[in-house]
Every structure is written in C-alpha cells, then in structure tokens.
C-alpha cells in the first residue's frame, strides 16, 4: 500500500465519487474530479503518481493521437498503462486521470503513465512528477487569445522542463523552435529525411519563419508542411539537429493509412495524413528509447484505432462519417490535404465554434487554404456551429459552390439532413467544443457507443 496522509485519502475518495457522479449523471466532467481532489490536498499528484514511469506528451497538434499511439505500443508490450485518453490535459485533468486509476492497496511499480499535457500546464505537472521522457510534437499558432505567439508557448513549456533536468527530451527535429534549447536535459530528435515533394519556399502564413537566434529568414532543403522541414539559417548557420529517428521513405499515402520507412523498419500507420506520420514517428521514437522492439511498435501502429474526434469513424444511418478535430491553420490544412487524397465523391460538414476552448477569435480561418477544396468532388457542404455564417462566408470566398451549402445550427435538423446526404462518405471537420457537443448528441442517439 502506498502511504498517503489523511488529506490525500479524502481527496482521492472525493475525486472518485465525483468521477462516478459525472460519468453517470452528467455524461462528462473528466477535469472536474481533479478540481475537487485538489481542494483537499494541493499536492495530491505527488502521492498518487508515485511508482509510475511517466511520459509526458505536449505540443500544439497531435497530442491526443500521439498519446494514444504510445499507450497502445506499451500495452502491446505487456505493460500496465494509464492515460488521459479523452484529452483532459490541464493540470486538474491530469490529477483526475491518476485518481481514477488509483488503488489504495496496489503498487504502481512497473506501470506506465502516458499523459497528454497542455503546453501551459507542463510546469504544474513537473512540479510534482519527474517524467522519464517529455516529448513536444510541434508548435503552431493556436488560440492566440490564450497562448500568444509560438515563442511564448515554447517558453511556457520550458518553464516546466527546467524543473526536471534529468528527464530525457524527445523532440520534433523538423521544428526549428526545438534546436539548441538552453536546458541540460539529454535530447534526441526525430523528423523526415524524405518528403513527397521538393518544396523549399515557405508559405506566407507559416509560423516560425525567422531564425530564433539572428532573425534572418530560414531557408529549407525541403518543407513537409507549415514551418516544419529540413531548415537552415544562411546567416548564422543554425540548422536542423541530427535525427536519431527518421522517415527515410514514404511508400504510400492513402485516405485511410500511410506506409513509411522509419530508419530501416517498414511501418504502416493506420491513420491518414502527413501529420499522423509525424505522430507515429514520435511514438516509434519513444518506444525505441524505452527499449521496445521494432516488431511490437510496427504492429501496434498498424492497428491504431481512431477515437474521440481524431479521425474517429462512425455510422449515421449507413453514412460513413469521419470526425476530424481542427483547431488552427496548420492542423486544418493537413486535414484538408487528407481530403484531397479522395478520388470518389464525398460530402463535408464544417463546424466552427468560438468558445474559450476553441479560441474566441475565429479570424484564423482566413489563414486556412480552403481554396484547395474547390476542385474536389464534394457534393453536399454542411455548415454548423456558433460561427456557422463566418464559415459559410469563408467557404464561399474560397470558391466552393454555395448552391451546395446546407447551413443548420440545430443538431437534430443537421443530423437528419446528413442522413439524406447524396454521398455515403462524409467528413466532419469540427473545432474542439463543436466536436465535443456533437459527439454528445450522437451518443444520445446511439450512433456513438462510448462517449469518453
């Protein structure tokens, strides 16, 4: 039995009761139980996380998917794993995860906690936990009203890293923000040595275009997307770090999967898009750093299930709907690139909200390259959300056929129209609270079995 004081015991009990009530009565609340527990003991995480080997996953895009990939790899190896799979990644959400899995008379030795953490909350978690590994997937402009620019976000993460100098860092080497960090931590990098094109000109709306040391514009041997790629500064000669784990070849890029060579291992990633190749590469790197064999990692990545709005597939009266979470220009453009892989007719549902968790400023949609959709075989264009008219204007301006627009705010009416879509394949591109709320509605109607 792990020794904890009376305040912690009361916090765990109150947290577990709150978890039960929120799951069965409110159909949600994966963060609130942690809030309750912290009222009893502000340092409760220090006690309930003891014994776990912890891996923290942070960054702008791909946290939830990468966390899921890593968790599945470790489970496939036979380890006991806990994870905050719903994406409740604020400090109190992390506390909720550990409380939910806490057992008074069971040791956590030999178990792993694969935990997704919001960028601004890393410092709160590392105050109480020293992880085995911290990985940063990427940094893009995201919720400017909350985070500010990417350099501000990086500094927020580094505030947490400096608390744990013995933690290994596994970083995306293609992101110029992560090179030559002023920290003592052992650092290894992953990235791409091969892309599908030879693009070297950075997009005008890309992030981190200027050298973080001398402010000169970066140049690239190639760009994967946004500001990621094989960068170098022609002025001060800062360049991409040496990669330990790399994509050496992209063998196949399909609408529902990708096949790549990672170092010398052929890996099929059962989720589509270039950004999911990055997620899979990150998971591969962490698995290898924790001494998991290639076959186990590759087999797990090939069987990765999509869930909780991250390319999650559901059936709505025979219609195959894929929910894709979109929250900033970089991620949205990658989602659109996935749509561009389709050759058969399909329909789309765009859902745009402006709640706090989405970012209250929706002007970022004008930095998304919706124009690339204008020549695709899209039949019905459904539009919903609290800012549905902003989205409709943006899509019309992008050249999409406004005669195909079906604008509907009510979920019941929207779903009925989706059922009558002229195509069997529908892509749902939704911001965070739009995804959460529509999933709840679909769950209430029986289309989604597992809400959380």
Automatic annotation (TrEMBL):
UniProt-listed InterPro entries: Lipid_II_synth_MurT, Mur-like_cat_sf, Mur_ligase_cen, MurT_C
Domain of life: Bacteria
Record-annotated active site: 361
Coiled-coil regions, chain positions: none
Enzyme Commission number: 6.3.5.13
Domain Mur ligase central: 57-235
Residues given in the record as Zn(2+) binding sites: 211, 214, 233, 236
EC category name: ligase
One protein family per Pfam: Mur_ligase_M
Reactions catalysed: beta-D-GlcNAc-(1->4)-Mur2Ac(oyl-L-Ala-gamma-D-Glu-L-Lys-D-Ala-D-Ala)-di-trans,octa-cis-undecaprenyl diphosphate + L-glutamine + ATP + H2O = beta-D-GlcNAc-(1->4)-Mur2Ac(oyl-L-Ala-D-isoglutaminyl-L-Lys-D-Ala-D-Ala)-di-trans,octa-cis-undecaprenyl diphosphate + L-glutamate + ADP + phosphate + H(+); beta-D-GlcNAc-(1->4)-Mur2Ac(oyl-L-Ala-gamma-D-Glu-L-Lys-D-Ala-D-Ala)-di-trans,octa-cis-undecaprenyl diphosphate + ATP = beta-D-GlcNAc-(1->4)-Mur2Ac(oyl-L-Ala-gamma-D-O-P-Glu-L-Lys-D-Ala-D-Ala)-di-trans,octa-cis-undecaprenyl diphosphate + ADP; beta-D-GlcNAc-(1->4)-Mur2Ac(oyl-L-Ala-gamma-D-O-P-Glu-L-Lys-D-Ala-D-Ala)-di-trans,octa-cis-undecaprenyl diphosphate + NH4(+) = beta-D-GlcNAc-(1->4)-Mur2Ac(oyl-L-Ala-D-isoglutaminyl-L-Lys-D-Ala-D-Ala)-di-trans,octa-cis-undecaprenyl diphosphate + phosphate + H(+)
Keyword set, alphabetical order: ATP-binding, Cell shape, Cell wall biogenesis/degradation, Ligase, Metal-binding, Nucleotide-binding, Peptidoglycan synthesis, Zinc
Domain Lipid II isoglutaminyl synthase (glutamine-hydrolyzing) subunit MurT C-terminal, residue spans: 325-435
Metabolic or biological pathway, per its Swiss-Prot or TrEMBL entry: Cell wall biogenesis; peptidoglycan biosynthesis
Classification via PANTHER family: LIPID II ISOGLUTAMINYL SYNTHASE (GLUTAMINE-HYDROLYZING) SUBUNIT MURT, MUR LIGASE FAMILY MEMBER
Family, similarity comment: Belongs to the MurCDEF family. MurT subfamily.
Its job: The lipid II isoglutaminyl synthase complex catalyzes the formation of alpha-D-isoglutamine in the cell wall lipid II stem peptide. The MurT subunit catalyzes the ATP-dependent amidation of D-glutamate residue of lipid II, converting it to an isoglutamine residue.
Subunit details: Forms a heterodimer with GatD.
Name recorded for this polypeptide: Lipid II isoglutaminyl synthase (glutamine-hydrolyzing) subunit MurT
Lineage: Bacteria, Bacillati, Bacillota, Clostridia, Eubacteriales
Protein encoded by which gene: murT
């Amino acid at each position: 039995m792990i020794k904890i004081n009376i305040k912690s015991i009361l916090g765990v009990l109150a947290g577990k009761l709150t978890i039960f009530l929120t799951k069965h009565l409110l159909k949600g609340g994966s963060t609130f139980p942690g809030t309750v527990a912290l009222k009893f003991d502000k340092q409760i995480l220090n006690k309930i996380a003891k014994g776990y080997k912890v891996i923290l996953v942070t960054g702008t895009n791909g946290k939830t998917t990468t966390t899921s990939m890593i968790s599945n790899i470790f489970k496939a190896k036979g380890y006991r794993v806990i994870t905050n799979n719903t994406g409740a990644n604020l400090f109190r959400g992390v506390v909720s995860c550990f409380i939910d899995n806490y057992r008074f008379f069971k040791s956590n030795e030999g178990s792993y906690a694969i935990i997704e953490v919001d960028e601004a909350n890393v410092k709160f978690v590392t105050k109480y936990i020293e992880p085995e590994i911290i990985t940063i997937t990427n940094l893009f402009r995201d919720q400017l009203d909350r985070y500010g620019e990417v350099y501000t976000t990086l500094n927020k993460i580094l505030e947490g890293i400096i608390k744990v100098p013995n933690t290994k860092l596994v970083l995306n080497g293609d992101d110029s923000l992560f090179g030559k960090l002023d920290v003592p931590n052992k650092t290894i990098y992953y990235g791409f040595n091969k892309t599908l094109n030879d693009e070297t000109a950075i997009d005008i709306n890309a992030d981190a275009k200027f050298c973080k040391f001398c402010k000169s514009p970066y140049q690239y041997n190639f760009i994967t997307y946004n500001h990621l790629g094989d960068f170098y500064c022609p002025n001060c000669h800062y360049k991409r770090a040496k990669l330990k784990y790399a994509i050496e070849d992209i063998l196949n890029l399909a609408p529902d999967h990708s096949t790549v060579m990672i170092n010398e291992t052929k890996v099929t990633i059962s989720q589509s898009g270039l950004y999911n190749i990055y997620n899979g590469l990150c998971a591969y790197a962490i698995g290898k750093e924790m001494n998991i064999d290639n076959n186990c990692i590759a087999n797990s990545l090939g069987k990765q299930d999509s869930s909780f709005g991250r390319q999650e597939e559901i059936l709505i009266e025979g219609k195959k709907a894929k929910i894709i979470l979109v929250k900033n220009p970089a991620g949205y453009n990658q989602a659109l690139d996935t749509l561009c892989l389709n050759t058969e007719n399909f329909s789309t549902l765009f859902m745009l909200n402006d709640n706090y968790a989405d970012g209250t400023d929706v002007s970022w949609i004008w930095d998304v390259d919706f124009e690339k959709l204008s020549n695709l075989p899209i039949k019905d264009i459904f539009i919903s959300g609290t800012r549905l008219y902003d989205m409709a204007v943006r899509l019309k301006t992008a050249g999409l056929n406004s005669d195909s627009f079906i604008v509907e705010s009510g979920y019941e009416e929207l779903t009925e129209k989706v059922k009558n879509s002229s195509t069997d394949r529908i892509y749902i591109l939704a911001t965070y609270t739009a995804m959460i709320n529509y999933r709840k509605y679909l769950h209430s109607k029986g289309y989604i079995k597992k809400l959380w």
